[in-house]
């Protein structure tokens, strides 16, 4: 059976997160989106963990549900490690999978003795990420760790501001226990394939959602006979049954290119090098984005897919598509009316974005909307890249669309 999964989200107890990121809204919007397995997020936060223990019931080994929902929850959290190594301050985000709530409780108890895990759903820990991994693996060898959004400048394993030049430099002797990497919104597998160092890792994609509407903006599609925590981790490790990832167009991510947001400066890597990484307006350092960082480390030309690499498909969230076509804000009643009209007709958002043909779409909505969806599937879009904290824009209202 096919399962669409989103392993990285946040609860209402994380900073800058919607108060609607509770279990009920997460489950409801996962069903609307077409997500079958969704993360709990934030299991280290005491208040959120109490809710998880109270409302979740284990229905398959390591997977949980709430009442009146068919969506499976998997126990995960994101931890932020800030520390010094090799003379440089490192800021690494780590996605942690726990095999069950009992193991999550043990992780919480251990971390609570040394760190403040109560201040935020994604707590900041002053510890080397390798030492944190050691602690977690000592608690359970079934725990699974994934470096999060690996290219983000400020908080990632390869980030231009605080990252490393290899996984081994970061995790040292624990490197063999790291099996997967999360690409992040500003990168996609095509970009990662340029660096042979990453061939041995499975690339996964998740939404990092802070609101219900953003669930599933990136996701993973598995073919698994018997769904369970163990079989999900096995699928990630072996790639057997891992059909494809669902990706943002990476240009839409807010750190795709180099730039300086205070000066509205956006640059390609070549332009940045020409300006010696200095903003031409204020003469301060530019924020080096994902494309530049990939170019620094890559040794393979773009377009070559490694033998065992997982395929991917690029999407634009349905509300964003409707917003552009209708000329209304994504949160307006006009967009919502069309959105739920489509959901009612075709079950969920992923089915609409990935599967329903234009003939069927045209029966429900104006042809220009179905044309926009088909253009998205083909990648027939105009891309305006994000930079230094600003999201980019994927324009589907191009000349070809209007013909």
Features:
alpha/beta; 15 helices; 403 residues; 4-stranded mixed β-sheet; single chain; 8-stranded mixed β-sheet
For the largest beta sheet, what order do the strands appear in spatially? Answer: 3-4-5-2-1-12-13-16
Average pLDDT confidence is 97
Provide a count of the helices.
15
Oligomeric status: single chain
Low-confidence stretches: none
Bulk shape = globular
The helicity comes to 25-40%
The CA-CA distance between the termini, in Å, is 40 Å
Gyration radius, in Å: 21 Å
Largest sheet geometry: 8 strands, mixed
| Count of DSSP strands | 18
User: How much β-strand is present in the residues?
Assistant: 15-25%
Output the structural class: alpha/beta
Write structural notes for this entry.
The protein is an alpha/beta fold and 403 residues long. It is built from 15 helices and 18 strands. Strands 3-4-5-2-1-12-13-16 form an eight-stranded mixed beta sheet. It has a four-stranded mixed beta sheet with strand order 8-6-7-9. Strand 14 (258-260) and strand 15 (265-267) form a beta hairpin. The model has no long low-confidence stretch (mean pLDDT 97).
Write the layout of secondary structure elements.
Elements: E1 2-6, H1 23-33, E2 37-39, H2 46-55, E3 57-60, E4 63-65, E5 72-74, E6 76-85, E7 88-97, H3 101-112, E8 124-125, H4 129-139, E9 144-147, H5 167-171, E10 180-182, H6 189-192, E11 202-204, E12 219-223, H7 229-238, E13 242-248, E14 258-260, E15 265-267, H8 269-274, H9 290-297, E16 311-315, H10 318-326, H11 333-346, H12 349-354, H13 358-362, H14 367-378, E17 382-384, E18 393-395, H15 399-402
Parallel strand pairs: 1-2, 2-5, 6-8, 10-11, 13-16
Antiparallel strand pairs: 1-12, 3-4, 4-5, 6-7, 7-9, 12-13, 14-15, 17-18
């Amino acid at each position: 059976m096919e399962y669409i999964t989103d392993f990285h989200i946040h609860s209402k107890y994380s900073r800058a997160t919607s108060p609607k990121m509770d279990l009920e809204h997460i489950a409801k919007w996962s069903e609307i989106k077409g997500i079958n397995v969704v993360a709990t997020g934030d299991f280290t936060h005491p208040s959120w963990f109490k809710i998880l223990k109270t409302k979740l019931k284990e229905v398959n080994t390591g997977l949980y549900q709430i009442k009146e929902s068919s969506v499976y929850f998997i126990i995960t959290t994101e931890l932020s490690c800030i520390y010094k190594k090799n003379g440089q301050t490192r800021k690494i985000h780590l996605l942690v999978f726990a095999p069950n709530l009992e193991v999550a409780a043990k992780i919480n108890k251990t971390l609570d003795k040394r760190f403040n895990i109560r201040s935020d759903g994604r707590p900041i820990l002053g510890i080397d990420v390798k030492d944190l991994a050691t602690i977690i693996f000592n608690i359970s060898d079934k725990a699974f760790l994934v470096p999060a959004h690996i290219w983000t400048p400020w908080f990632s394993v390869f980030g231009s501001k605080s990252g490393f030049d290899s996984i081994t430099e970061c995790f040292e002797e624990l490197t063999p226990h790291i099996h997967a990497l999360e690409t992040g919104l500003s990168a996609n597998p095509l970009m990662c394939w340029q660096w042979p160092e990453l061939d041995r890792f499975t690339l996964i994609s998740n939404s990092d959602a802070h609101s219900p509407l953003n669930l599933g903006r990136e996701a993973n599609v598995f073919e698994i006979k018997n769904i369970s925590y163990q079989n999900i981790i096995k699928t990630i490790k072996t790639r057997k049954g891992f059909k494809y990832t669902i990706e943002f167009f990476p240009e839409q991510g807010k750190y795709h290119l180099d730039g300086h947001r205070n000066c509205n400066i956006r640059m390609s890597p070549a332009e940045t090098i020409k300006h010696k990484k200095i903003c031409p307006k204020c003469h301060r350092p530019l924020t080096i984005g994902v494309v530049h960082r990939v170019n620094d480390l890559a040794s393979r030309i773009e377009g070559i897919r490694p033998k065992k690499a997982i395929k991917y498909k690029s999407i634009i969230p349905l509300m964003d598509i409707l917003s552009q076509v209708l000329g209304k804000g994504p949160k307006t009643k006009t967009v919502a009316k069309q959105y739920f009209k489509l959901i009612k007709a075709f079950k969920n958002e992923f089915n609409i974005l990935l599967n329903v043909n234009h003939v069927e779409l045209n029966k429900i909505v104006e042809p220009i909307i179905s044309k926009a969806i088909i253009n998205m599937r083909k990648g027939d879009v105009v891309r305006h890249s994000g930079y230094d904290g600003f999201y980019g824009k994927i324009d589907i209202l191009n000349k070809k669309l209007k013909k």
